[in-house]
Design a protein that fits this description.
This protein is α/β, with parallel strands linked by helices. It folds into two domains: 237 residues, Type I PLP-dependent aspartate aminotransferase-like (Major domain) (Aspartate Aminotransferase, domain 2, 3-Layer(aba) Sandwich); 118 residues, Aspartate Aminotransferase, domain 1, CATH 3.90.1150. It is built from 13 helices and 14 strands. It is globular. The two termini are 22 Å apart.
Length: 365
């Protein structure tokens, strides 16, 4: 049957950048600095310039970024975070780690993302932070959400872990809310060779607070001035890797969109619906379809040598380890029961893309 087509193939990505990554490692070796050195400072500046935001603070993971962002943006007197429940529970975990309660709003079935209408239905007087996850890479127009959150004194945190590089009219994901976060987990569009994350904001006060909290709450070495500090620093090697890969982000996102559009064409006039990624407001992070016959399709693709995943199968409020408040969100559950993720990464070969498209067409016959 040949090599199985993986949902993501990190080996190919590493081989593509191997020589440059080796040079990056050697530059760190030669510097003798491994934490919060020149590579981290340069990467933060370069990412800030790319995103057109004044402040980027790198941290050790995307979850750490969310935790810190929630901590520093929660208004006084509030203690609840509201998020979608179909995005892998990362916001819920971060909210719990930050010491806050979590509640959930339903999402739109056509985008799998929050809307202001759904947020409004789920709001209570204790909600101080809304986390907007740009799921699968889609940056929806969230101006209404941002405007209404501001009116109500609610902080808007954008989770851009899947949408880095997506933009509307040149305004990038992460530039609409009060503060934003991203992950550099290896499978992300901008991926390191280990964990990493970042916080970005136009708010100087929030930026300064984030810099303190990522390193114990220090205002200067060994002087703790802010409560809630953690040990969360992006190391020099990962920063050096990310500097190599940042210039490739736009072109890689375009390749991802093209792959998704190939799947859309293959599924045309069928019962399969592939979420569109037809413009710069989508990073093409994941190729996700909706089907009433998920297990049958998944088995068929497996027999054809094509791997699949489900992003994400369990609503956050049904996660036993979260002990979240009981909810029943119909659109969220409808999607969690029907979504399926197809292979999508820049190093996917043309022959592999065609094999997947042919399998989609055959399944529909």
């Amino acid at each position: 049957m040949g090599e199985v087509i993986q949902v993501n193939n990190l080996f190919r990505a590493i081989q593509h950048d191997r020589d440059s990554l080796t040079c990056a490692i050697n530059s760190v070796f030669d510097s003798g600095r491994v934490v919060l050195g020149e590579q981290v400072a340069s990467f933060e500046n370069e990412l800030a310039e790319y995103l057109k935001v004044p402040n980027v603070v790198s941290v050790a993971s995307g979850t750490d970024a969310l935790e810190i962002a929630i901590k520093i943006s929660m208004p006084k007197g509030k203690s609840t975070v509201l998020s979608a429940a179909n995005a892998g529970a990362y916001s819920a975990i971060a909210a719990r780690r930050a010491g806050f309660n979590i509640t959930f709003a339903d999402v739109d079935k056509t985008t799998a993302c929050l809307t202001w209408g759904h947020i409004q239905e789920a709001l209570n007087d204790d909600v101080g932070v809304v986390v907007m996850t740009h799921l699968y890479g889609l940056l929806t127009d969230i101006s209404e959400i941002a405007e209404n959150c501001k009116k109500k004194g609610i902080s808007l945190v954008e989770d851009c872990a899947q949408s880095l590089g997506a933009n509307i009219g040149g305004f990038f994901s992460g530039s609409f809310g009060d503060i934003a976060t991203t992950s550099f987990y290896p499978t992300k569009n901008l991926g390191a060779l280990g964990d990493g994350g970042a916080i970005f904001t136009a708010n100087e006060q929030l930026s300064n607070k984030a810099r303190q909290l990522r390193q114990y709450g220090w205002s200067k070495k060994y002087e703790i001035s802010s409560a809630g500090g953690v040990n969360s620093r992006l190391d020099e090697i990962q920063a050096a890797f990310l500097r190599i890969r940042l210039p490739q982000l736009d072109s890689n996102n375009e390749v991802r969109r093209q792959i998704i559009n190939s799947y859309i064409e293959a599924a045309e006039n069928s019962a399969l619906h592939v979420f569109p990624a037809d413009g710069p407001n989508h990073s093409g992070h994941l190729a996700v379809l909706v089907t009433e016959n998920r297990e049958e399709l998944r088995q068929f693709l497996s027999e054809e040598g094509i791997s699949t995943e489900i992003h994400f199968p369990i609503p956050d409020y049904k996660q036993v380890g979260l002990m979240a408040d009981p909810h029943k969100l119909p659109n969220t559950e409808w999607l969690c029961n029907r979504i399926l993720t197809l292979p999508c990464y820049p190093e996917l070969l043309s022959i592999e893309i065609e094999k997947i498209c042919q399998a989609i067409r055959t399944f529909n016959e």
